[in-house]
Design a protein that fits this description.
single chain; eight-stranded parallel sheet; globular; binds pyridoxal-5'-phosphate
Length: about 220
């Protein structure tokens, strides 16, 4: 068995254990395999093992591999988990199935317009900058609930949930708890939170999807 397939199984079983520990069902948590920086040769063993949910953080890089892979394998669910510029909205809507990084009006509008134009309905998440870090993407926590409402009421978007990337050097628990609280206030149910270093904690705080790269593929160098 290929190394990535083994490591994927290991991560999946750690998610299952974390679910049991917190009284949750493993099927309630989606493992998004983050394949950024890795090529088709690394991804294909996972596709052949029936993995179907992947995440990429750059539109152009994703086009370079996933246009072909989506032709070769059916039912792939591709998530955009990195920042989006409005001039890439057309390409993003054409390729991705889920966009997790809606964080300002301009992007919300551009995505809404493209979905109409292309007659494609993507699943959408609002990214929240739970640590209010100046350099980080995401809407500020205090603006998150009203922004979700605005997306729904003014731009006609269905928002499935919230996504966050906690500050690198902080205990992630309080950030996951904040995201869950904001989702409750905004009336959305999905929580995309947790990466290689903290996905088990995220599951315990109610993550409905975790985004895991290096624990499956190894370091990105
Ligand atoms: C790269 C990335 C991940 C995966 O990070 P790992 O630590 O390699 O698991 C998750 N979420 C986002 C937004 C990323 O950019």
């Amino acid at each position: 068995m290929s190394n990535v397939v083994e490591q994927h199984e290991e991560v999946a079983s750690r998610i299952e254990t974390a679910c049991k520990r917190s009284g949750r069902t493993a099927s309630d948590v989606t493992l998004i395999i983050v394949s950024k920086t890795f090529g088709p040769e690394d991804i294909t063993p996972l596709l052949d093992d029936n993995c179907r949910v992947f995440g990429e953080n750059r539109v152009q890089e994703a086009q370079g591999k996933w246009v072909d892979l989506k032709e070769q394998y059916s039912d792939i669910e591709l998530h955009l988990i990195g920042p989006l510029q409005s001039n890439k909205a057309e390409d993003a809507v054409a390729l991705f199935d889920v966009i997790q990084t809606i964080d300002r009006e301009k992007i919300a509008k551009a995505i809404g317009k493209e979905m109409k134009k292309q007659d494609r309905k993507l699943k959408l998440f609002v990214q929240v900058n739970t640590g209010s870090e100046p350099q980080k993407a995401g809407i500020l926590p205090e603006e998150a609930v009203s922004f979700v409402k605005k997306c729904q009421e003014d731009f006609g978007l269905e928002i499935a949930g919230l996504m966050c990337i906690p500050p690198f050097d902080e205990n992630p628990g309080p950030h996951f708890a904040l995201l869950r609280k904001l989702a409750g206030e905004a009336g959305v149910s999905e929580l995309s939170m947790g990466m290689s270093g903290d996905f088990e904690t995220a599951v315990e705080f109610g993550a409905t999807s975790v985004r895991v790269g290096s624990a499956i593929f190894g370091g990105r160098g």
